[in-house]
UniProtKB/TrEMBL annotation:
Origin organism lineage: Bacteria, Pseudomonadati, Pseudomonadota, Gammaproteobacteria, Alteromonadales
Entry's free-text remark on domains: Consists of three domains; the N-terminal catalytic domain, the editing domain and the C-terminal C-Ala domain. The editing domain removes incorrectly charged amino acids, while the C-Ala domain, along with tRNA(Ala), serves as a bridge to cooperatively bring together the editing and aminoacylation centers thus stimulating deacylation of misacylated tRNAs.
Name of protein: Alanine--tRNA ligase
GO BP annotations listed: alanyl-tRNA aminoacylation; negative regulation of DNA-templated transcription
Gene name tied to this protein: alaS
Provenance organism: Pseudoalteromonas xiamenensis
One function term, GO molecular function aspect: tRNA binding
């Protein structure tokens, strides 16, 4: 049956509440308990200490719809936006969690019941993966759920083995996929064509089974736990009978609004999807307290805003447009996220100022880029030009790479880095003649972010 995105979110939470789960509100996009993590990128983030046993809660089962951002850091889907049917920079992850309560058997049957009984998805369109050594999960799917063996794929890669870090909790995963039909290119998980969008992963069930020690040995956890995550937009697409997440109710609202404020006429234009995606991450990041800046989280936000502005410009916008989409977003998501409504005016102001600032140099920078592209030999944009666009016109390197990709070109990332490094050295030399406390503070702060590539946060325009 057809369900709206809001109805699906609610029915998920209701289902797990009726199975003795405590419904917990989404936490901020800025992880409160983990300085090594750039953004909240999964539902389990707010429960990390509970899983580790360092924090006690009055419940052992929980469910949530968690706002997530995957742009930068270990999970970076920024480059996928506009190219796949299933990735966003911002999305909502529906999750149910067991803290030493139920394990594989209940996790699998709860997920299966929700999909096939509550949502009434046809079982024959679903297939699952298990970790290749996890006979226990295989048998539950096969003998208890009754899924035929050829619908249960054993995977030996890290895709199906989760770990929190090099040491600590880890364990096998079982993922549920939906087959959107053979008119769409792609193969089942584990096949060479799995990157296509025919078989779309909808739900990841993580079984926290072991504790891994520094020497690599694994010991069963005293209290085995479950962490699951299902993309709300992906399950909405299925329920609404469409293939791409960008065709669901929520995104259609945003895409129509984007077309209106940019004067775009072709509703299929991929830039509309990019802008509609980016307004969600940018608005929610500002709502959670991130401000555009030249380093760390703020630079990720700035990069996303600038990408959106460039795509809006391509669609035909002639004046600041991005901030105008906050109203459309509030219309789509304000009910589920009252904080968005409360902060609407601030978000609009921050995004408007950021766009106005960049708007001043965008046209000039694009003109320089065009000029250089017309005489480009080969298919790689030289690092020197990428650096000049960055340094003089405020083009983050990934923005130039985004333009390049549209023309089947790439950027010389190494060359760009070399110019960045040279600039850094110059700045340091200058710094020797007087302490630059701003600079010191910056490098202190940047060490907070492990796994977040250096080029992105040291990008201070000198
Ligand atoms: P994929 O392989 O499609 O990139 P994933 O394996 O990286 O997904 P998980 O880390 O397992 O995703 O996250 C759990 C669920 O969250 C996924 O099964 C999917 O439904 C959803 N999800 C993950 N990344 C995104 C994204 N960028 N946009 C929308 N939904 C996502
Ligand atoms: Mg992924
Ligand atoms: Mg995956
Ligand atoms: Mg997964």
């Amino acid at each position: 049956q057809h369900m709206t995105t809001a109805q699906i979110r609610q029915s998920f939470l209701d289902f797990f509440a009726s199975n003795q789960h405590q419904v917990v509100p989404s936490s901020s996009l800025i992880p409160g308990n983990d300085a090594t993590l750039l953004f909240t990128n999964a539902g389990m983030v707010q429960f990390k200490d509970v899983f580790l046993g360092a924090e006690k809660r009055p419940y052992t089962r929980a469910a949530s719809s968690q706002r997530c951002v995957r742009a930068g850091g270990k999970h970076n889907d920024l480059e996928n936006v506009g190219y796949t049917a299933r990735h966003h920079t911002f999305f909502e992850m529906l999750g149910n969690f067991s803290f030493g309560d139920y394990f594989k058997r209940d996790a699998i049957s709860l997920a299966w019941n929700f999909l096939t009984t509550v949502l009434q998805l046809p079982a024959e369109k679903l297939l699952v993966t298990v970790y290749h050594e996890d006979d226990e999960a295989f048998d539950i799917w096969n003998k208890e759920i009754g899924l035929p063996a050829d619908k249960i794929i054993r995977i030996s890669t890290s895709d199906n083995f989760w770990s929190m870090g090099d040491t600590g909790p880890c364990g096998p995963c079982s993922e549920i996929f939906f087959d959107h039909g053979d008119h769409i290119w792609g193969g089942p998980p584990g096949s060479p064509e799995e990157d296509g969008d025919r078989f779309i992963e909808i739900w990841n069930l993580v079984f926290m089974q072991f504790n891994r020690h520094a020497d690599g040995s694994m010991e069963p956890l005293p209290k085995q736990s479950v962490d699951t995550g299902m993309g709300l937009e992906r399950i909405s697409a299925i329920m609404q009978g469409v293939h791409s997440n960008y065709e669901i109710d929520l995104f259609q609202g945003l895409i129509n609004a984007t077309a209106k404020v940019t004067n775009a006429t072709d509703l299929e234009d991929k830039s509309l999807r990019v802008v509609a995606d980016h307004i969600r991450s940018c608005a929610f990041l500002v709502a959670d307290g991130v401000m555009p800046s030249n380093e760390g989280r703020g630079y990720v936000l700035r990069r996303i805003v600038r990408r959106a502005v460039r795509h809006g410009n391509k669609l035909g916008a002639t004046e600041p447009f991005f901030y105008k989409l906050v109203a459309a977003l509030v219309e789509q998501m304000g009910e589920a996220y009252p904080e968005l409504v409360k902060q609407q005016a601030i978000i609009e102001k921050v995004l408007r100022i950021e766009e106005e600032q960049f708007g001043k140099t965008l046209d000039r920078g694009l003109a320089i880029l065009e000029e250089n592209l017309s005489s480009l030999e080969g298919s790689v944009i030289p690092g020197e030009l990428v650096f000049k666009l960055y340094d003089t016109y405020g083009f983050p390197a990934d923005l130039t790479a985004d333009v390049a990709r549209e023309r089947f070109l790439s950027i010389d990332e190494r060359g760009f880095q070399e110019h960045m490094e040279a600039q850094r050295r110059k700045a340091q030399q200058a710094g020797k003649f007087g302490a630059d406390y701003n600079e010191l503070l910056k490098s202190d702060k940047s060490t907070d972010f492990k796994g977040y590539e250096a080029e992105h946060f040291t990008g201070t325009v000198v």
